[in-house]
Amino acid sequence: MANATLTADAASTSRPAPDWAAVRADFPILRQEVHGYPLCFLDNTATAQKPEPVLAAMDAYYRTTNANIHRGVYQMSEHATELYEGARARIAAFINARSSREIIYTRNTTEAINLVAATWGRANVGPGDAILYTAMEHHSNLVPWQLLAQERGATLRYIPIDDAGRLVLDDLETLLEGVKIVAVTYASNVLGTINPVAEITEAAHRHGAVVLIDGAQAVPHMPVDVQALGCDFLAFSSHKMLGPTGIGCLYGRRALLEAMPPYQGGGDMIRRVTLERSTWNDLPWKFEAGTPAIAEAIGLGAAVDYLSALGMDHVRAHEQQLVAYALDRLNTVPGLRVLGPPAAERGGVAAFSLGEIHPHDIASLLDQRGIAIRAGHHCCQPIMDYYDVPALARASFYIYNTEADVDRLIDGLHFVREVFGSE
Length: 423
Ligand SMILES: Cc1ncc(COP(=O)(O)O)c(C=O)c1O
Prior knowledge:
- The chain has 423 residues and is of the alpha/beta class.
- It contains 14 helices and 17 strands.
């Protein structure tokens, strides 16, 4: 990662590390008890909790500024438009996009990827072309491409993974022949693996392919700079980065977005409509049909401000330290097997199996102690197939988690083993 090119907003090398206890105190949901225990929230890969400033920004919008945007000439509507577009500008700076016109609001990562598959894909992928993804993608970065391939008569290829949970890039040059688009996750939501996406992008571009990065597990957790990465598209979700549900973003290189046909038709995305035909609005609104998620965009803007104030390199350092501690401690639990690479190469995610105990039983018993983890296939059935497991348990960390949370998880896992007569 080229930290040197980060924007002033996202970089924080000159800033002192945050007071993490004070950060935790900003999250009111963490003050509650579950089954008589203080909540220990370790399902951050699925969704993150919301700090006071995000809750306050959305509350203030509904209490004082609620009006539709772009249309009204009255003060409240103009103010709502400013807040909505101001958030977009700060999101653009957060990932170092060249312009806020390159940020399209979507519902989430999934919709951002579907947008690219449906518009860029239909216009550029034809019979005999290849689409390349990887064996560690979330379903949302597999299924849209499978639908496109079926519709257009294209072929699908994938970069395999090895037992350590890394991409096997040995045959990348061969795999890239005839490829129109490469869709790759920056960080795996199961294995935690942080992939060399800049290197993959560079190789893809040499072969004339465009690159979409699934940033759902990267943008919330580490500095991400689209110019340094050189990618063509980047998709991410607000709800995984302290913002509300219902909004996400697609970053796209302007020249590509300009050339793409619209995604959905309706209000706001047009310039002129007659009974026969329509012309399209400028970027980014060409891709934003209908009344958008206004309060949610404002909430996401507040989340970006919050993360920027912490500094994304501090966020990354905090999670790396926590996951290193978690891996050390998890490896002391008899029968427990963590999948994925060493801490230095992964995000704050630890997916594991525990002997023959079903992950759903692990998660239910931990819940009895107020500990929230995820169990299941994590929307990554091909990873389950590769490791030949029906499901995995997964603990995942964010800025408000502490070593004490890890200790509670470990105690909880010993309790699970006791219940199953393993010790
Ligand atoms: C790597 C990855 N990609 C995509 C998604 C889909 O995100 P969303 O459900 O917000 O669209 C997720 C969600 O967990 C994810 O972890």
